[in-house]
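Here comes a specimen:
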Amino acid sequence: MSAEDNWSPRSQAARALGWIDQNTRAVTPPIHTASTFLRDPDNQYRSGYSYARDSNPTYDQAEALLCELEGGAGAMLFASGMAAAGAVFLNLRPGDHVLAPRVMYWGLRRWLAEFAVPWGLQVDFINMGDLTALAAAVRPGQTRLIWLETPANPLWGISDIAAIAELAHGAGAVLAVDSTVATPVLSQPLKLGADIVMHSATKYLNGHSDMVGGALITARKDEYWQGVAGNRHDGGAILGAFEAWLLLRGMRTLYPRVEAACRNALAVAEHFQGHAEVAQVLYPGLPDAPDHALAARQMRGGFGGMLSLRLKRGEGQAVAVAAKVELWSRATSLGGVESLIEHRASAEGPGTPVPADLLRLSCGIEAAEDLIADLESALRSG
């Protein structure tokens, strides 16, 4: 056993598993931009690399680190979070039944409704917090996949991964969890019974808003996982070499960034709870949040860097406040070092389940007092 095997996850991330390039002894990995690789004289590929559509050596260290942080048996990088999620669903067949959350990332919810259902999947959107309703919606022998997102964007509800894993496996279904917001710093769904974990690597894993990518990590390299791998290979939704390098660079600071974002989110949530202009603060780290006890049991070290504010004077006030902030950036996405604010209903458009009075906040690593002061100023003038 090497010394690296005894490192904590925080140290594994900071040192990117301690891998050193053997050719140069560089402490940061090289970027391999080759699209194809030399065969051996007998036409074998003993290097393990043949064609860069899914065997780029720049992937190796990032995928290995994801396996280490999530406690998985295998990992794959994709061109985006949507590509990663799509590969899981496209491993199903027309007629298969899927359960997904009513509140979830809007882009994937729309894809399920507008592509997966016409393609032939039977999809039911369920309140994942109601285990009785969820159990009643499961169709033994037909439900093949349950998809969770926890915390769920943008209301930040928490789903009970262990309980839902038991339901899924009892019906012969796979449980996949979008853990983008929790990150492996705060939650490890595979250890709670999930089969697959998905991340939009664009967000916290990269953390610098300078690449787009997705990742899947599996508990077992089973038949389902091999099918997902085939979808990546055949569909070609792969990550570029430079993007893979940026992802690995970002993951080296994952722990301090997530910890800072959690501290800031909690400070913002506590400050605006009961505020004269705020009707509701949505954050699972508040003791009176409906899912606080479950979040405290299922997450560790914090409750995430995301929260939402519902404003008392409605949509007009929410839009005005977003227009008046100076430190917060008005932008889509989340998980970067910069704090972002968004009127989410406008971003999602017609049919969104998001309340029109809601502002979604992604806390970065700035000073909490500055973030609070900026929102206070915008509320006074909005």
Q: What stands out?
A: The two ends are 60 Å apart (CA to CA).
